[in-house]
Inverse folding.
C-alpha cells in the first residue's frame, strides 16, 4: 500500500459513520478497550507509527469495501487505502496525513499538494457511472490544532497565547488556547474540560475573547501527568475530539497551548 501521486479529497471516499457511539467516551478509555481486539497491519501500521498521536488507536481490524478499498476506523478518524491509485492516508475530518512520494505529508482536507493535482486520473473501462458517495461528516463538531496551524492563527503577544506548543513555567502549570468557529470568529460560552485518569474533571468556560485556561498545578509537581482535554456541550456530552496532553517537568514544559476549531456546523 505504498502511496503514489494521486489523491482525491479523502472525505469524499468513505463516510465515518459508525464511530459516534464508540467515541462518546474519552478516546483514552476507548483505546484501552479496543487495543486487545484489533491491530494495524501493512501500510496502515506504517502510517500509524508515523503519526501515532494524530491517528489514535484502532477500533476494528482492516476491512475491504466492495470496490476493493481498505478502510480501518480509529479513535480519531479513518485510515484509507484506495485500490485505484494505491495511496495510504489518514483523516480526522479536518486534516489529512498522507504517506506520499516525499514521505509523510499533511494538509487541510480542503487543500491539495502540487503532486496531487498533477497526477493523471486513473483509466477506467467504459460503463455506467457509480452512484455518488455521500460526503462524510466528522464524528464531532470540533477538533484541536496547534496554535500556529492554519487556517486561523490567533497567537502572539497581543492574543493571550504564545505561538508555541509548550513552554517552561515553574510558577503556574496550565493548558490554554482559543475556541474558534468555522468562520474564524471566537466562540464564547464554550466549556472546555480536563480530566486526569478517573478524577473529576476541571473546566474553563470561554469569554468573548474565546480563551480557555485550565490549571494543572502551581507546585511544579513531578510527572508524568496525562490530561484528556476536550469540549462538552450544555448537556455535558462530549462534542470534540480529545487532546491528550502529557506533563512531565515544569522546567521543560509547564504550560501547553492549542486551539479547538469548529470543523462541522
Amino acid at each position: 500500500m505504498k502511496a503514489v501521486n494521486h489523491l482525491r479529497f479523502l472525505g469524499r471516499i468513505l463516510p465515518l459513520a459508525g464511530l459516534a457511539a464508540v467515541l462518546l467516551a474519552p478516546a483514552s478509555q476507548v483505546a484501552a478497550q479496543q487495543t486487545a481486539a484489533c491491530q494495524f497491519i501493512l501500510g496502515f501500521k506504517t502510517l500509524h507509527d508515523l503519526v501515532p498521536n494524530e491517528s489514535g488507536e484502532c477500533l476494528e481490524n482492516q476491512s475491504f469495501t466492495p470496490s476493493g478499498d481498505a478502510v480501518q476506523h480509529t479513535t480519531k478518524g479513518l485510515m484509507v487505502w484506495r485500490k485505484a491509485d494505491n495511496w495510504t492516508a489518514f483523516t480526522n475530518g479536518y486534516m489529512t496525513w498522507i504517506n506520499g512520494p516525499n514521505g509523510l505529508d499533511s494538509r487541510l482536507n480542503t487543500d491539495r499538494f502540487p503532486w496531487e493535482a498533477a497526477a493523471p486520473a486513473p483509466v477506467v473501462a467504459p460503463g455506467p457511472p457509480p452512484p455518488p458517495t455521500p460526503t462524510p461528516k466528522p464524528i464531532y463538531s470540533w477538533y484541536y490544532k496547534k496554535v500556529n496551524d492554519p487556517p486561523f492563527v490567533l497567537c502572539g503577544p497581543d492574543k493571550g497565547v504564545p505561538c508555541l506548543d509548550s513552554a517552561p513555567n515553574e510558577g503556574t502549570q496550565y493548558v490554554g488556547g482559543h475556541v474558534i468557529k468555522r468562520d474564524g470568529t471566537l466562540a464564547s460560552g464554550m466549556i472546555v474540560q480536563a480530566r486526569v485518569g478517573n478524577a473529576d474533571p476541571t473546566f474553563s468556560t470561554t469569554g468573548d475573547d474565546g480563551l480557555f485556561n485550565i490549571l494543572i498545578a502551581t507546585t511544579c509537581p513531578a510527572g508524568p501527568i496525562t490530561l484528556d482535554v476536550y469540549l462538552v456541550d450544555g448537556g455535558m456530552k462530549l462534542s470534540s475530539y480529545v487532546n491528550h496532553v502529557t506533563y512531565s517537568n515544569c522546567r521543560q514544559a509547564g504550560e501547553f497551548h492549542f486551539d479547538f476549531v469548529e470543523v462541522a456546523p
Summary: The CA atoms of residues 230 and 242 lie 5 Å apart.
